[in-house]
Specification:
The chain is of the alpha/beta class and about 425 residues long. The protein has 2 domains: about 250 residues, Rossmann fold (3-Layer(aba) Sandwich), CATH 3.40.50; about 150 residues, Glycogen Phosphorylase B (Rossmann fold). It has 13 helices and 13 strands.
Amino acid sequence: MSKPVIALFPEASFGSALNCVGIAQQLQRQGATPVFLCHPGFNGVFTEYGFKEYQLPVSPSAKQQTEETWQAFVTAHLVHFNQTPTEQLETYVAPTWDAIVDTAMQVEEGLQTLLKRIKPDGIVLDNVIMFPAIANAGVPWIRVVSCAETELPDADVPPYLSGMAADDPARPGFERAYLDVTAASHQRYNRFRKTCGLPPLPDGQYLEASPHLNLILAPSAIRHDRAAPLSPDRFVFLEGCVRKEARFDPPPLPVNEGPIIYLSFGSLGAIDTDLISRMIDTFATFPARFYVNVGGFLESYSRVPDNVYLGSWFPQPSIVAQTDLFIHHGGNNSYCEALYFGVPSLVMPYCWDGHDNGLRAAQTGTGVHFQRDRWSPQMLHDTMSTLLADRHMRDHLGQISSAMKARSGSRRAADAILQTIGISLPR
């Protein structure tokens, strides 16, 4: 019997991409052949882990535009990252949905061709929008929700991207505003779906639940109670899904004492060099060792304290496993890795589901939520000291970590995927 081919298609973000790597690693261990469909700009990301890549066939001009304009898009919106989630609806969320719809339309023809060439037995889609070629490919497709659980709407779950509690009195106003600002892109997207033979989606929604299988990254400790429970036949909670990485040994520092604190705001957040510079200045007077992911902006930092190490990339699961505190942007992958390794989170979100995860960390006793532009050096000092000394939180996180590791989210994902496509392979 030939090995089943599973095509994984993450969105153009490292959180989703690396989450899919963890699933692919387990699929490979169980005898399947995972391959990756890549957006322009992600060439080489998956080959680093030993997987075959297929680049989405787009025109050279579209490829150049995708690679160059996305960073320019984020840089232009940097000023909006200090806004409230409600304020960001018009300034950031609406333009982002416009760009996402543009991408889905641009790659449709090439994606159809690519899927006919690969002939996968199943497709894993870790994205926020449906690409019609996937729904029309004639094989089971699996949706992965690697953003916050709030992506799946429910009356008792906070509204997606809101950063508010489910019972917040401002909820109706946020939901109305969300529908208003997304109306134009949503109507455009539904017209596109119609031309591809797909039914329209409800207002504000760009991706339907899979009729086959839906995998949700959120572990039990941060899960929401729902007014309408999700069917366990179609919705599987993974208890996180952490990829295997080579061990990272933190380089010794000139001042090499104290706990290890890791800072990463993700590939997009690294653009905010002013914020990171301000934090580095504060780190200089705190008794700890700091490892800071600055992405492609190493040259932006001329003064580095003796207790700080700057890197353009870290094998995150490996360093988080050795960390005493993780400062991050609330990306769901980062948050779930912190939970998986039992590490407190100091969440400083700038956009998207980071707002939802920041509040959820505070609600569940797994971290603290900071606004990016409303802190002082003393506040940061005090918060880091409190989180490092909080034994109750540490014990709570230790229990969460043990439960997540015992259930192996990547194995649950691989088992469910193979069962969905009708393949039985040894574990």
